[in-house]
């Protein structure tokens, strides 16, 4: 099983490095990305099969904080993660108020983000193992 992730990051180098690390070290499969709030919202409106959004707070167009406010999750198990250089106690508190699942500081918590994604991969594998092979009760 793979974790379908959409990355909202305006720095191309950071996005490339993040995608490379997550895809190499975890079960993450990056399904798309955007450098703007509107681009991300457009993609989300057309795609409901994502498992996780990773969002920077400062974008080329719009705001990551406003984006997480506006995102409508199609499923309760979809995760929204903030990954930013501008993390402090008030940002963490505001993110929690908006329903963000986790907040990581780019400069000091990349390993924690990788660990979080690895844990989500483990949970995804456990859910897949527990789901019935024939949910309608049919025989193989």
Give a quick summary of the entry:
The protein has helices at 12-25, 37-46, 64-70, 89-97, 110-130; strands at 3-8, 28-34, 52-55, 79-84, 102-105. It has 140 residues and is α/β, with parallel strands linked by helices. Helix 1 (12-25) links the parallel strand 1 and strand 2 (28-34).
SSE series = EHEHEHEHEH
Q: How many structural domains in the coordinates? A: 1
Shape: globular
Helical content, roughly? 40-55%
Low-confidence stretches: none
Strand order of the largest sheet: 2-1-3-4-5
Report the portion of residues in β strands.
Answer: 15-25%
Number of strands: 5
CATH homologous superfamily title: Response regulator
**Radius of gyration, taken over Cα atoms and rounded to an integer in Å:** 16 Å
Q: Which whole number gives the mean pLDDT?
A: 91
CATH fold naming = Rossmann fold
The largest sheet is: 5 strands, parallel
| Structural class determined from secondary elements | alpha/beta
The second-level CATH architecture is 3-Layer(aba) Sandwich
N/C terminus separation: 21 Å
